[in-house]
Amino acid sequence: xxxxxxxxxxxxxxxxxxxxxxxxxxxxxxxxxxxxxxxxxxxxxxxxxxxxxxxxxxxxxxxxxxxxxxxxxxxxxxxxxxxxxxxxxxxxxxxxxxxxxxxxxxxxxxxxxxxxxxxxxxxxxxxxxxxxxxxxxxxxxxxxxxxxxxxxxxxxxxxxxxxxxxxxxxxxxxxxxxxxxxxxxxxxxxxxxxxxxxxxxxxxxxxxxxxxxxxxxxxxxxxxxxxxxxxxx
Length: 233
What we know:
CATH superfamily: P-loop containing nucleotide triphosphate hydrolases
Shape: globular
Strand order of the largest sheet: 6-7-8-3-9-10
CATH class: Alpha Beta
Order of helices and strands: EEEHEEHEHHHEHEHEE
Number of strands: 10
Structural class: alpha/beta
GO cellular component, one term: plasma membrane
Number of domains: 1
CATH topology: Rossmann fold
Keywords: ATP-binding, Nucleotide-binding
CATH architecture: 3-Layer(aba) Sandwich
GO molecular function: ATP binding; ATP hydrolysis activity; transmembrane transporter activity
Protein name: Alpha-D-ribose 1-methylphosphonate 5-triphosphate synthase subunit PhnL
Largest sheet: 6 strands, mixed
Pfam families: ABC_tran
Radius of gyration: 18 Å
Strand content: 25-35%
């Protein structure tokens, strides 16, 4: 398999049975990513951008099209057909996802969340402690919050923690769903620094953005989404 990720003729619709409605989200999407590439998708809210990422991550299941991913352990697999156990393995070890929202286990501190992400990748406890502190400091998360529960955090603090947790794993494939939403300029710059570092280390990324300025000098290719249709810019 030449590419790390190959999306072919991806289409996704939703049936709202209680309302008797059929909603067409995206259709005929084709995207190929080589290892180490960064591809960006722009478009208005509701155009279908997030649907693509959720189909890759297995949040949504496909009925049409294929999503082939060249896994380091499983080999080439169609993410539209893998078992739930295989998808969980890929999420844990190979595919990262950053969204605008933070879903975490209750009674788990910010420090524990980030450290657990490192341990899942096979890191040692001492190294995990050090890397946890480094990335929390990078995003300037107040030290008083490190051992607090994220349910008490502001929206911006939750987003910075979510980004830190995903990026510290250095996944092979990183999906970015509006990673700079609700962040100030300084925090956006810190996200950009880490993205550039991950790119140098070979992480492949597919991201959706509203902030076009943020994407400058980052993307190898850019697509635009309108009414569920993807076009190359």
